Amino acid sequence: MVSVTPYLIRAYHQWMEDSDLTAHILVDCSHPAVVVPKQFIQQDKIVLNIASSATESLILADESINFKARFSGQSVDVYIPTHAVLSIYAGENGEGMMFETQQQPVESEHKPGLTLLD
């Protein structure tokens, strides 16, 4: 089944943009695919401003969130797998949504062996 999380992230982001609020996401940086400036990670988490005024080339896709942002004056490419987003909220009032942590399915290298029994 397709996860509802990316749809909710896009909906909340759009609502915040329309309401002149600043969209932030809380990211679990323990996921190995997360690409953010490591010096800003605290306790395996980072808060990122994903408002259109703070990002360049923002893509809120089904599998990931991608954008460029400036950190300490340097442009950085940011990549967040959707399953690593813990919450999205408005910086001004805290309104938003928390997401359950999701484990990515581990694909087995071996298919299960089936035996036909008489």
TrEMBL record:
Swiss-Prot/TrEMBL GO biological process terms? positive regulation of protein catabolic process
Give GO cellular component annotations, separated by semicolons: cytosol; ribosome
- InterPro entries, A to Z: SspB (IPR007481), SspB-like_sf (IPR036760)
User: What PANTHER family does this protein's entry cite?
Assistant: STRINGENT STARVATION PROTEIN B
This chain belongs to which protein, by name? Starvation protein B
Its source organism is Candidatus Thioglobus autotrophicus
